[in-house]
Design brief:
Blueprint (H helix, E strand, L loop, with lengths): L2 E5 L4 H13 L12 E6 L11 H7 L4 E5 L5 H10 L4 E4 L6 H6 L2 H27 L8 E7 L23 H20 L3 E6 L1 E3 L8 H11 L3 E4 L5 E6 H14 L5 E4 L4 E3 H15 L2 H5 L9 E4 L14 H7 L7 H14 L1 H9 L2 H8 L3
Parallel strand pairs: 1-2, 1-4, 2-3, 4-5, 5-6, 6-10, 7-9, 8-12
Antiparallel strand pairs: 9-11
Helix pairs in contact: 1-8, 3-5, 5-6, 7-9, 7-12, 9-12
Bound molecules: nicotinamide-adenine-dinucleotide (NAD) and thymidine-5'-diphosphate (TYD).
Thymidine-5'-diphosphate binds next to helix 7 and strand 8.
């Protein structure tokens, strides 16, 4: 993998993955060090922020890291990028990713998540076919597709999602991701495209856009704003620190069996209200007590139970035996250590937060790139 196309690399997981590959992948052992270059293709929607990779741009810009502002729905642009950089592998993160937004405005989810994935598959197939015609068969190595456990639908109080669980998506977001997974699988079965797919549980960590549960609650608690918990707060998610997701993806990309799906999860099931309580306890501990007193005795007083999300999946929980037994993956962070790191990251990066929230970074983008 010398010319790796990463889509959606300015988003939450994509930016963490690029940093992981360029700076930390060696921790897996010498043979797994990424030595190629990354071509990051991102449309820079509200969720994509090139400032999340400012350090990478400085250290690796124009040598091992190249940014291309482009829309995966624009097939001409994607074709050009495949040709210009002689792309030999893809790691596909780009997506509309927020369930609440998909309920309010589903169309862009259909367009980006389904049409965009189709375009990338077509470009990869062209490249793969060309390498076969030339006889080497080695010029296109892998299309790795990033997906979610939400494609499996919802669980009751017991049971786990395995790779054999039938798809049963409930939200427009998860339905669009399910469709994209099926396309990837079909391009493998029909055209022989070398693919791997990973379905991961909820991530948290640095650089997550503050519309998702954990960063939203951290920032509201810091600012003394109400903490809106949907329904009775008893819905359950299985949380994974983003860097642990990145190490699993890289392992699958190197050692995973082509055509296979791998579930990734934290083995860390928590009710939403428990997650919010844990965030509050950390905030109460790490923020200067004088500042805290001016807000309320404890951040927990800010918790509010609000109207439930329509079609709110009750529980997600992952069986990730396959990625552990076949590939030897292990997460490094517990929820406690990962959450504390995350809270501290947001506290130390309020400039990033302010710019993302105010939309100021759009001005930054305008001064750096042609829109
Ligand atoms: P994100 O919303 O933070 O980032 C998405 C990125 O994709 C942004 O940089 C955005 O600008 C870019 N993008 C959107 N539309 C595009 C388009 N048409 N062309 C090019 N770029 C485009 O999302 P995330 O949380 O980092 O999720 C990344 C991937 O991981 C998604 O495929 C998501 O379904 C999957 N996933 C996320 C989680 C999670 O907990 N966040 C869990 C499992 C799987
Ligand atoms: P979210 O971070 O949006 O991820 P997903 O819906 O993909 O799991 O939400 C995580 C859980 O937190 C989910 O059960 C919905 C709930 N939630 C709230 O209770 N309040 C909020 O403000 C948000 C954004 C989410």
């Amino acid at each position: 993998m010398q010319n790796l196309l990463v889509t959606g690399g300015c988003g939450f997981i994509g930016s963490n993955f690029i940093r992981y590959l360029l700076k930390e992948s060696s921790f897996l052992g010498d043979d797994s060090f990424f030595t190629g270059r990354i071509i990051n293709v991102d449309k820079l929607t509200y969720a994509g922020n090139p400032e999340s990779l400012e350090d990478i741009e400085k250290e690796f810009g124009n040598s091992r890291y190249i940014f291309e502002k482009a829309d995966i729905c624009n097939i001409k642009e994607i074709e050009r990028i495949f040709d210009q950089y002689d792309i030999d592998s893809v790691c596909h993160f780009a997506a509309e990713s927020h369930v609440d937004r998909s309920i309010a405005s589903p169309e862009i989810f259909i367009e980006t998540n389904i049409r965009g994935t189709f375009n990338l598959l077509e470009c990869a197939k062209k490249k793969y076919d060309f390498s076969l015609i030339k006889g080497s068969g080695k010029n296109f190595f892998l299309f790795h597709h990033i997906s979610t456990d939400e494609v499996y639908g919802t669980l009751g109080k017991t049971g786990l999602f395995t790779e054999e669980t039938p798809y049963s998506p409930n939200s427009p977001y998860s339905a669009s991701k399910a469709a994209s997974d099926h396309l990837v699988r079909a391009w493998h079965e029909t055209y022989g495209l070398p693919v791997t797919i990973s379905n991961c549980s909820n991530n948290y960590g640095p650089f997550q856009f503050p519309e998702k549960l954990i960063p939203l609650m951290i920032l509201n608690a810091i600012e003394g704003k109400e903490l809106p918990i949907y329904g009775d707060g008893k819905n359950i998610r299985d949380w994974l620190y983003v860097k642990d997701h990145c190490s699993a993806i890289w392992l699958i990309m190197q050692k995973g069996i082509k055509g296979r799906t791998y579930n990734i999860g934290g083995g860390c099931e928590l009710e939403n209200r428990e997650v919010v309580e844990k965030i509050c306890s950390i905030i109460d501990k790490v923020i200067n007590p004088n500042v805290r007193k001016s807000l309320s005795a404890s951040s927990k007083e800010l918790m509010r139970f609000v109207k439930d999300r329509p079609g709110h999946d009750f529980r997600y929980a992952i069986d990730c035996t396959r990625v552990k037994q076949e590939l030897g993956w292990r997460p490094e962070e517990s929820f406690e250590t990962g959450l504390e790191k995350t809270v501290k990251w947001y506290l130390n990066n309020m400039k990033w937060v302010e710019r993302v929230k105010s939309g100021d970074y759009l001005n930054w983008i305008k001064s750096h790139y042609t829109i």
